[in-house]
Amino acid sequence: MADEVALVTGGATGIGAEVCRQLAASGARVALCDVNERDGRQHAAAIGATFIPCDVTRYDAFADAVATCESTLGVPTFVHLNAGIMTVPTGDAFLAIEAVSLEQYRRIMGVNLDGVFHGVKLLLPRMRVKGGAITITASIAGLGVLPIDPLYATTKYGLIGFGRSVAAANASGNVRINVLCPGVVDTGIVPDAFRTGAHGPMPPAVMAAEAVDLLRNGANGEVRVKLRDREAFAVGPTDLGA
């Protein structure tokens, strides 16, 4: 495990924080990347990771984070592109689509979609010699409907298609690309309405274990779903052959 390097975006809290914890516990050298410097530095110090500030919406900032990771830890073996937000901040009322501002639209697209594109563009070519895996956090919202936040669902549909397509385009290489679709997880972005009832939230550590397994063992192009009361399962391409 000594030569394993992991880079995790959105690593300061939630699923990403637990992924960092589990990878560090297994002996990997972990680059915990986040815009949340307070929680990120504290968590990195607690688990023996290296905190690297990173705004995934800015290509130059992401490039700087990757360069820092390479110079201090090495080229990543594992990358978890996990940073994500909903359209409105936690605790705010959700908006009808016509009430969403252009700033809010661009922000969620920047974090959820641009951040993953930036990560894959920067890291995939660097990882090809060493080999490894890139896991993208999407959501079950990308496989169904989410009336309270159509833009969040849109980004997650996009990530599933992006991950599958890039995986297929790179099938002959030695970097596996796959996608994790969590059900409701007890993180800071989960709306209060989703915290009760039959589909209440799972602990972040449960989803982190699936992310780590995808990084270590997941198939190229795999899209894995994990719900609270079911074993994880893979979903295949559509009947249209996509």
Q: What is the H/E order?
A: EHEHEHEHEHEHEE
Compute the CA-based radius of gyration: 17 Å
User: Kindly state the mean pLDDT as a whole number?
Assistant: 91
Flag low-confidence runs: none
Envelope shape = globular
The biggest beta sheet reads: 8 strands, mixed
Number of helices: 6
Alpha carbon gap, first and last residue: 36 Å
Helicity, as a percent range: 40-55%
Q: Which strand order spans the largest sheet, edge to edge or round the barrel?
A: 3-2-1-4-5-6-7-8
Strand content: 15-25%
Structural class: alpha/beta
Beta strands, count: 8
List the SSEs and their pairings:
Elements (H helix, E strand, L loop, with lengths): L4 E5 L4 H12 L3 E6 L2 H11 L2 E4 L5 H14 L5 E4 L20 H26 L4 E6 L12 H20 L5 E8 L21 H14 L5 E4 L6 E3 L7
Helix pairs in contact: 1-2, 1-6, 3-4, 4-5
Describe this structure in words.
By secondary structure, the protein is α/β, with parallel strands linked by helices. The N and C termini lie far apart (36 Å). 46% of the residues are buried. The mean pLDDT is 91.
